[in-house]
Amino acid sequence: MLHVLGIIAPMFLLLGVGMAASFSERFRSAQPGLNAFVFYFSLPAFIFIAVANAPLNDGVPLAFIAISLGVTALVFAIAYLGAIAINRVRKRPDDVAGVAPGAFAIASTYGNVGYLGVPIVLSVLGPEAALGAALGQLLHNVLFMVGYPLMKTLGRETRARAAGGIGMLLWRVAKRSVVFNPVVLSVVAGVIVGVTEVRPPAVITASIEMLGNAAIPTAMFAVGLTIKPAWEGFRTRSVSPGGVAVATVLKLAVLPLATLAAVLLMGDALSPQWGAAAVIMAAMPVSSTANIVAFEYDGDSRLVGATTLVTSVLAVATIPLIIGLLG
């Protein structure tokens, strides 16, 4: 419990600094620039270093990959389709009242696996769980930093009835969400470096590490900047309290418990260490990066920011409870 609190506390302090800064218009107006810096520079550098240093040549159980991707994708689909259905029943468009399906589904499933999940997995399971932690982070990033942009871009292009046939449509989708996606490029580069063990010159590596080291404080500061607008959204009803509550339950309870159920169903196909890593990763609060993704592809991160705040506070209690279920 104290290990977990010791890891979470500094993040809360950084988030609090950002929240305090959000009362100044100077810093509120800087949020788009901070988000862009993290998304296009600092986060790719952070991911590149993590992937390049992961023991990719070691064996990986396929059950871990199936659970990490499958359960998260299933809960995401339920949240996304559920938001669409509720909006239609209420006869509201999908982009009002803070319950846009994309942002809601992200808030329900996109966990802080990198900044918080990896340190907690290593502190609870030991350094021998490093591969599971790194792979869990990589799979999560692929799902949300590649899969979600691909889905959003494909949806926009389909609605726009892009000319040029299916080939041109797929190229436009791939160009935005894969070919020119800085996070995807960083994952590919990290895998190449990790597998070939061909390291960049020391000066380049040091520069990338410096950029990557800025990802956590900058992202948490940017999340803090969203808290005041998110709170104001609660007051003005521009952020749905019900949407935040349901997303919180899905993220902190449904997703980790569904992952635990899948691990138990796999039986001997997954060792206790790999199974525990998958469950702990699923129990993380909403990622600060989720705000950046929602802002980049949905144009509004208020609901995600509010859910990040709520889940980060409640995770102080829920993470130890989930770990306790693992025995």
UniProtKB/TrEMBL annotation:
Pfam families: Mem_trans. It comes from the Bacteria. Signal peptide: none annotated. The keyword NAD does not apply. It is found in: Cell membrane. One of its GO terms (biological process) is transmembrane transport. One of its GO terms (cellular component) is plasma membrane. It is a multi-pass membrane protein. InterPro entries: Mem_transp_PIN-like, Na+/solute_symporter_sf. Keywords: Cell membrane, Membrane, Transmembrane, Transmembrane helix, Transport. The chain crosses the membrane at residues 6-24, 36-56, 62-84, 96-118, 130-151, 178-196, 202-223, 244-267, 273-294, 306-326. Its main location: membrane. PANTHER family: AUXIN EFFLUX CARRIER FAMILY PROTEIN, SLR1864 PROTEIN. Belongs to the auxin efflux carrier (TC 2.A.69) family. This is AEC family transporter. It comes from Microbacterium mitrae. The lineage of its organism: Bacteria, Bacillati, Actinomycetota, Actinomycetes, Micrococcales.
